[in-house]
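On clarity, I found the account of how folds are encoded harder to follow than it need be. What matters is that the chain and its backbone geometry are given together, residue for residue. The format is easy to grasp once an entry is in front of the reader. For illustration, here is how one protein appears when written out as sequence plus structure tokens.
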Amino acid sequence: MKEMTNNKKRNILVVEDDLINREILSAILSDNYNVIQAENGLVGLEILESGEYDFSLILLDIQMPVMNGYEFLEAIGQIPSFKSIPIIIATSSNATAEEIQCLENGASDFVVKPYNPDVILRRVGSMIRLSEASSVIDRVEHDAVTGIYSREFFFLNAENALLENTHTEYDIFCCNIMSFKMLQNRHSKVKIEKLLIGITKALKENFNSDSIYGKTTSHTFSVLTPHKSRENYESIVENLRNALKSLPISDAVVYFASYPSVDSSVPVMTLCTRALAAIEDIKYQFGKQFAEYNSEFNDKYIRRHAILGFMESALKEKQFEIFYQPKYSLAKGKAGGAEALVRWTHPELGFISPAEFIPLFESCGFITELDFYIADKVCSDLREWLDSGKPVVPVSCNLSRADFSHPHLAEVIEQIADKYSIPHNLLHIEVTESAYTDNMQVFLDTVQKLHNSGFCIELDDFGAGYSSLTVLSELDIDVLKLDMYFARNMELSKQRLILKHIFSIAQGLNMEVVAEGVETKEQSDAFREMGCTYIQGYYYSKPLTKAQFEEYVKEV
């Protein structure tokens, strides 16, 4: 007989140490299902955690080496996305105590050995149908991983609570996981789920029982809770931040906001959106992780979303223009290089500062597409200058910390340069140590690949972070770009002493040094005395259009 014949076969995991029994089950089921075999519980668990298959059912033996059936049941019971998979236990006819223990540990049904093909097919088909039907109903109301309300049901239950408790003053409290897509790329599904479960647990421990909880996006949690003071929320946020430290993903950054004293006439979805507007505002302010909503946040939120809404069409329509800021060579007395900078003038919004749109693009991951676009435009311009016989200097392109989530970053940069037959030493790559602290090994591997391919590596904003010397010791860096802070504070004796040591280190490691943000002759002269190689700043030139830069290189 054939059960549940669909165009797409469902996957069944058979966990059984006896090869003959595995083959028997596979022969019975393979006409209707894709059967994946595991010789013990540990192998079965590894197959589940790999995420390669979505399983509709597990057939499980109990007595196995390495990891037996009981241990397997206990292990998957800790992982919410696996708990919903129905499990049929293969057992002997007189194993009543065994069956009871399995049921207590999450098993759904039993089949008796030796296997009867008709019984197996009927039990499996019925169990999958029942599971899928109940799963659809439950998924509509509750988030599959955390168990709290799904988006629509949170809004529904929250609005009902506001209508039923008109004498109670309520707040909306939201928390948002920063750069969630990047985290998903870096970490396993199991770790991501543990993070989501950990946040849910921490929220429930810090709010009272009459609060309502919802997972309102893939990376956002919302709580309707009786009104609290700002001081109460600050204390709760501190507790939540401490709880996050014990979770398996140490680089997860979570922001929090409250919308105080909600108006029941306003949809809860709108209230959550406004709380998120406050989160959007503090994401780019150092040291802030909690905000209380006020009307100013909404205007900023609307503008940010307008910018994000226009970004893809702006790239297609080539609204982003490349400017070149010269790096003045003190030894040659002329331009010895340039940094490619991006400018955006939108037909409706007008000029949008890079300080405004770049952090937004980094937060959503779009910055990588823009950085590849800039590199392509720079290589196109370099090719044009080479072919026309115009003066050519190396040009540096910036890589965002978010770019290092791209699995083939170094290869893409190399392909762009080779597309235009650009000698790799003409394309400098600027990286910041903040990317190093985000994901150390990925950063080291990627930058080393680029260096080995002949690209010149520049370490931007040197001296602004905490790990500068560590980065120098672990990477082949060609150029140090001093943070603008040094130019602005040269009158301080401590800064001059630090600068002298930096130049000494650079000389010992055979690195060139670029001083950024130089605006006066006094600053330029001071850097010259210390042995600086290049000066970049308004004293020598502002960022120039392509045509202006061509004239600058020709004339200087």
Summary: The chain has 22 helices and 19 strands. Confidence is low (pLDDT under 50) at residues 1-6.
